[in-house]
């Protein structure tokens, strides 16, 4: 017989094989002491495994469960049902149920009971939340919801020299359609209710001219003072003007929840990355011309990966909407423009609004 190396087994399969060889050696030698000496174990160990083999066969050589035969602190069925009833009634978590309802169990035990009975829902992963949100947005039609926000331009390092030299606008007022991703731009030297209201007044006339029903359009903004977000009673200002004069719906996003305006915030990142940091600008007319060129590219040409690699123009065409509504040159709001944001008449005639018509670059935009 081969000499047996005295090595203590480490894995479960090796342990089982070791015990089996002990038993086989005993069946051959008929001596507990000899087998113990050969394998370097105690005589009692050999006796134990031989006896287990004689009683249960090869199954007896496997490890027995170390689970106790009786659990002295097992939760009764009645107590488990009471926990489930209170869970349905209050929606409390395990820790709160223990602290407020006085269950004489650890929070871990309560959580196990809730999980075993399907009362614990797994937390949605971030990617799943985004996928679900995209599904909800896909159900919208173009112009059902528009997000409006202001972008600061004077904090862009590459843009600042031209901004300072040519006295370019400090703020970009961005309007973005959630379903199609289309954008319209307005520029202002001030961040105010007047600027945002004037921009929406001109933009609403553009929508109405192209057959869009304003009462079906919902405008979503953050709670900034330029959108009258600091007011509790909105009897005047931006919100009042939208609802009472333009007859458009308006909603605020929850405070400190910028991701609720994710579509327009995404455009702010893209326009800074692809436009303001890459271009060099001249006087106001050159600046507005380049801005209009980028806006046309974004609305008519640029494919959006999150919208099935379609441009805003493609999406509008799918819904039977003529993409000509996407062509609105950037609006420059001059400080001397007048607009009574408290009036209820829709017959507005701003006196000094510079609605720039692009002459740069030197090519004619084809009819869409």
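Q: What amino acid sequence fits the structure above?
A:
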């Amino acid at each position: 017989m081969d000499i047996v190396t005295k090595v203590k087994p480490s894995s479960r399969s090796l342990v089982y094989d070791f015990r089996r060889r002990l038993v086989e050696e005993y069946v051959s030698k008929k001596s507990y002491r000899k087998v113990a000496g050969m394998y370097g174990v105690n005589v009692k160990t050999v006796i134990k495994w031989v006896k287990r083999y004689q009683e249960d066969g090869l199954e007896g050589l496997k490890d027995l469960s170390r689970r106790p035969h009786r659990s002295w602190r097992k939760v009764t069925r009645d107590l488990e049902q009471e926990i489930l009833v209170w869970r349905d009634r209050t929606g409390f978590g395990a820790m709160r149920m223990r602290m407020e309802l006085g269950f004489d169990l650890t929070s871990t035990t309560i959580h196990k009971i809730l999980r075993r009975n399907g009362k614990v829902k797994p937390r949605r992963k971030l990617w799943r939340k985004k996928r679900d949100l995209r599904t909800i947005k896909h159900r919208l039609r173009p112009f059902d919801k528009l997000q409006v926000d202001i972008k600061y331009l004077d904090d862009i390092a590459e843009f600042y020299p031209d901004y300072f030299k040519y006295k370019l606008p400090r703020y970009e007022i961005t309007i973005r359609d959630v379903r199609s991703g289309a954008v319209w731009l307005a520029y202002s030297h001030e961040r105010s209710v007047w600027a945002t209201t004037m921009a929406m007044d001109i933009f609403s006339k553009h929508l109405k001219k192209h057959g869009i029903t304003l009462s079906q359009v919902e405008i979503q903004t953050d709670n900034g003072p330029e959108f009258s977000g600091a007011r509790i009673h909105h009897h005047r200002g931006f919100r009042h003007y939208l609802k009472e004069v333009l007859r458009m719906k308006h909603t605020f996003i929850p405070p400190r929840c910028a991701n609720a305006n994710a579509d327009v915030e995404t455009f702010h990142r893209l326009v800074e990355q692809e436009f303001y940091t890459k271009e060099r600008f001249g006087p106001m007319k050159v600046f507005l011309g380049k801005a209009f060129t980028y806006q046309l590219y974004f609305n008519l040409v640029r494919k959006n990966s999150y919208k099935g690699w379609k441009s805003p123009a493609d999406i509008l065409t799918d819904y039977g909407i003529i993409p000509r509504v996407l062509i609105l040159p950037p609006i420059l709001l001059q400080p001397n423009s007048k607009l009574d944001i408290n009036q209820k008449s829709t017959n507005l005639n701003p006196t000094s609004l510079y609605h720039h018509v692009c002459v740069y670059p030197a090519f004619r935009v084809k009819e869409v």
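Q: And what stands out in the fold?
A: Residues 77-116 form one domain.
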